[in-house]
Write a structure and sequence with these properties.
About 45% of the residues lie in helices and about 10% in strands. The chain is α/β, with parallel strands linked by helices and about 150 residues long. It has a domain of about 100 residues: 3-Layer(aba) Sandwich (Rossmann fold), CATH 3.40.50. A five-stranded parallel beta sheet has the order 3-2-1-4-5. Helix 5 packs across helix 6.
Amino acid sequence: MPGGDACLLESNILLRIGKSDDPHHAAIAHALHVLAGQRVRLCFTSQILGEFWNASTRPPDKNGFGLSVAETDRLARVIERDFEFLPDSREVHDRWRSLLVVHTVAGVQVHDARLAASMYVHGVGRLLTINVRDFRRFDGLRVLHPAELQDAR
């Protein structure tokens, strides 16, 4: 089971950090403050940054944020500066492939399995996400919704 001193931040968290009008913004800001106060390593992967870029630059009428490439690049640089990067490797790939078969993963959920594989390989025990349900199948990972940290200090 991965250690608990690190937390992977899913793209839906990163997308909302700077979006003060998002209904989840306050809970996310508080959750990040709590985790940082506990000295938890806050992490991201290349896949997460790719998902962030995709949603940031996609037009609003296609469920995106409609930001320019320049603005998205500026935000991505902040993510890269402030959070720990977990690199891909052959080991992550092999673990991902195994998870796909073991959990009979199909469709878009292959991306969630890749994040779980990265967490297992890098010893990251927690995931902060709005989509908690998508990750429940992966044993030994603590999947947190930002609202779960509302009462924590």
